[in-house]
Amino acid sequence: MFVYSVRASAVRFVSVIVLSVIALAALVAFVPTYVPVSLFVSEDTVSYNHVNSPESRAAFLSQFGWEVDEENADCVEVTVPARFDAVYEDYNAIQRAQGLNLERYRGKKVMRYTYPVTNYEGYDGTVLATILVYKDKVVGGDICSAEVNGFLHGFAKE
């Protein structure tokens, strides 16, 4: 039977520690960091739940700084398509960018509420805020212009 013991010198010990610190620093520097989906509004400050009345829907939009005309709201039940075409894929990309995803609601009926926005700066035309609600929870929506060649973006002000 052979017994072999290794005694680490102070130089070897310090070398291992230094190499470990360098490896850890390289990992931190080169591994991409996770960026939250909602870049403009912290998810901690926005509530997507309990949106079950005209006042709560207006309050939801006010979290993003929008003022809406509650008197001229439009409400209709729509079905999220079971299969997304290219247009719905593009629209869902906007939803995913703001932390929402319509894929979970394929084939389900949701309520679509549309409100005229009264405080959209830098645009003279009609601007609408659309909210998609499923079981008192906002599952999608956008801010868009009513004109054909207008704009469409998420809830956050650009």
What does this protein look like?
This protein is an alpha+beta fold and 158 residues long. The chain has a domain of 100 residues. It is 27% helix and 21% strand. It contains 3 helices and 5 strands; from the N terminus they run ααβαββββ. It has a 5-stranded antiparallel sheet with strand order 1-2-3-4-5. The longest helix is centred in the N-terminal third of the chain and has 21 residues. The termini are far apart. About 6% of the residues have low confidence.
Count the strands?
Answer: 5
Instruction: Tell me the major beta sheet.
Output: 5 strands, antiparallel
Low-confidence stretches: 34-43
Dominant shape: elongated
Strand order of the largest sheet: 1-2-3-4-5
The radius of gyration is: 26 Å
Q: Order of helices and strands, N to C?
A: HHEHEEEE
Strand content: 15-25%
Give descriptors for this structure.
158 residues, alpha+beta, five-stranded antiparallel beta sheet, 3 helices, 21% strand, elongated
Would you spell out the secondary-structure blueprint of this structure?
Blueprint: H1 10-30, H2 54-62, E1 74-79, H3 86-97, E2 109-116, E3 127-134, E4 137-145, E5 152-153
Antiparallel strand pairs: 1-2, 2-3, 3-4, 4-5
Brief summary:
The chain is α+β, with helices and mostly antiparallel strands and 158 residues long. The chain has three helices and five strands. The protein has a domain of 100 residues.
